[in-house]
Design goal:
The protein has 321 residues and is of the alpha/beta class. The chain has two domains: 29-123 and 246-316, D-Maltodextrin-Binding Protein, domain 2 (3-Layer(aba) Sandwich), CATH 3.40.190; 125-220, 3-Layer(aba) Sandwich (D-Maltodextrin-Binding Protein, domain 2). Helices cover 46% and strands 20% of the residues. Strands 1, 2, 3, 4, 5, 6, 7, 8, 9 and 10 form a ten-stranded mixed sheet that branches. Helix 7 (160-172) links the parallel strand 5 (150-154) and strand 6. Helix 2 (41-57) crosses helix 10 and helix 7 packs across helix 12. This is Tripartite tricarboxylate transporter substrate binding protein.
């Protein structure tokens, strides 16, 4: 009888291990991989989240910067990590949606290998023109663009800034020549000098030029107007119903987390998003802290994003290879 009980105990042990591990989680410091260089806005976001998560979970959350490959290097590291809840990713629309659409060979499958736990902030974009462009609104710019070629500045192929412009071009029936710059600063310099006529830029970087009347904001790309630019209409209000484009950042983990661990992580992230200090800090930078969403709402958002951008990528023939 003793031998039989021992054998049954050994058979039952593997079934209990995942639950036991979940109950003891987190058992060590967590790692938050930020696939961008230190010092930027995304890095600041990651470090603020790490501090709040550490407070919620009772373990240090260490930020690890893994830049390169248009977020692929850091994203791959998390996609291949053990799904035990101790490795997290500062995810984005680029890593979860756009890279898989524009890169033919990518070392991870975002849908299969990663689980998006939180859409933390939205980074709105604004359609801005330089001082040489005689257009006060989107309708006037569209009329000009149908009369003569226009150059649009971007900071790469297949990123949100580029694709927001392509979505407008498809919606308006105009052709824009994409001119790629190595960053927002040189792109804005080109816009100010008249080398390019328009840019769909992150609000954070264009806002000082808009407030100094050096650039003219024609529209924002979000569903609703922005508190930092309340007088600027949306693209939808400007004659393009349904137009919406922005970049977003959130937190993902390797797929296959134990259910209790995933639930606890979602709770901790939701608490961070509700934190008044966190909201105030990033709202003041032109980022819109999002209300917490459940798993079903996040899945719906991801499907809509893939559908929207896959259509743009296919119709415009956009590829990084």
């Amino acid at each position: 009888m003793t031998t039989r009980r021992a054998a049954l105990g050994l058979l039952a042990t593997p079934l209990l291990l995942p639950e036991a591990r979940a109950q003891s989680w987190p058992s060590r410091p967590l790692r938050l991989v930020v696939p961008y260089a230190p010092g930027g806005t995304t890095d600041q976001l990651g470090r603020s989240l790490a501090e709040l998560l550490s407070r919620e979970l009772g373990q240090p959350v260490v930020v690890e910067n893994r830049p390169g490959g248009n977020t692929v290097i850091g994203t791959q590291a998390v996609a291949q990590a053990a799904p035990d809840g101790h490795t997290l990713l500062m995810a984005s629309g680029a890593s979860m949606i756009l890279n898989p659409l524009v890169m033919r060979r990518i070392p991870y499958d975002a849908e299969r290998d990663l689980s998006l736990l939180s859409v933390t902030v939205e980074t709105p974009l604004v359609m801005v023109v330089g001082p040489q462009v005689q257009a006060r609104n989107v309708a006037e710019f569209t009329a000009l663009a149908k009369q003569r070629p226009m150059n649009v500045a971007s900071v790469g192929i297949g990123n949100p800034i580029h694709l927001a412009a392509e979505l407008y071009a498809l919606s308006a029936g105009v052709e824009l020549q994409n001119i790629v710059y190595p960053g927002s600063a040189p792109a804005l310099t080109a816009l100010l000098s008249g080398d390019v006529q328009v840019m769909f830029d992150v609000v954070l970087t264009s806002l000082p030029f808009i407030r100094d009347n050096k650039l003219r904001a024609l529209a924002v790309t979000t569903r609703e107007r922005l508190a930092v630019l309340p007088e600027v209409p949306t693209l939808a209000e400007s004659g393009y119903p349904g137009y919406e484009a922005s970049t977003w950042f959130g937190v993902a983990a390797p797929a296959g987390l134990p259910a209790p661990v995933e639930a606890r992580l979602r709770e901790a992230l939701a608490a961070a998003q509700r934190d008044a200090g966190f909201r105030q800090r990033f709202d003041s930078l032109g980022l819109v802290v999002q209300p917490p969403r459940d798993a079903a709402a996040i899945a719906t958002m991801l499907r809509a994003e893939r559908e929207r951008w896959s259509g743009v990528v296919q119709r415009r023939g956009i590829s990084l290879e």
